[in-house]
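Progress report, Aim 2. The chain analyzed during this reporting quarter is listed below.
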Amino acid sequence: MLPPARPAPGVALIDPVPLYREGLSALVRRTPGLRWLGSTGDPHAAVRLQERLRPDVLLIDSVLDPVGHVTRLLVDRDPTLLVVGLVRDAHSHANYVTTALEAGVRGVVPRSAQPEQIVRVIAETCRSRGYVHPDLRPKERPTLSKREYEVLTLIAEGLENQQVAKELVVSVETVRTHVKGILRKLGARDRTHAVSLAYRSGLLIGRPAAFE
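Predicted structure tokens for the chain:
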């Protein structure tokens, strides 16, 4: 006698946007090999949803779990749960991805990805118990010299070249040389772009409001 077939993985969602919840519901329902269980827009209802639906895969919008608190809570309650992070553009940097994975997220995919890509990440996460979409895989950070890093940090704080020179007790021309080196290594078009790239890559930690 053959053993009973295992049910298809059950999928649930935590996302604040009703249209997105409806869209993902329709996507999963028409995908062979997946079962749609339900959704909520309230992260505070995550535990109740988990207890009621017992999903195999739970997708969470990164804006509702920016530092992994919800994921940790749910995974502690059910270590077999596969959490997939739907990553907003504002969170698509190495710091967020690393924090999410450390919290227990097993798969990450851009929230704006094409439907077939989201389904692929769900399936791959179920198959391999972990998957990071190629667009979100941490890239090798550029290597700055100690002085270049100091200059970049001061630029990120809003200092102009003359102020940086005064702070580091070097000439303005020396600062300009370091800035040119920073722009070249980061592939940046200007100082502001360099700071933005440095935060996105995790080279700098903690984004000032001016660069949001």
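Residues 207-212 have pLDDT under 50 and may be disordered. Residues 172-186 form the longest helix (15 residues). These observations will guide the mutagenesis work planned for the next reporting period.
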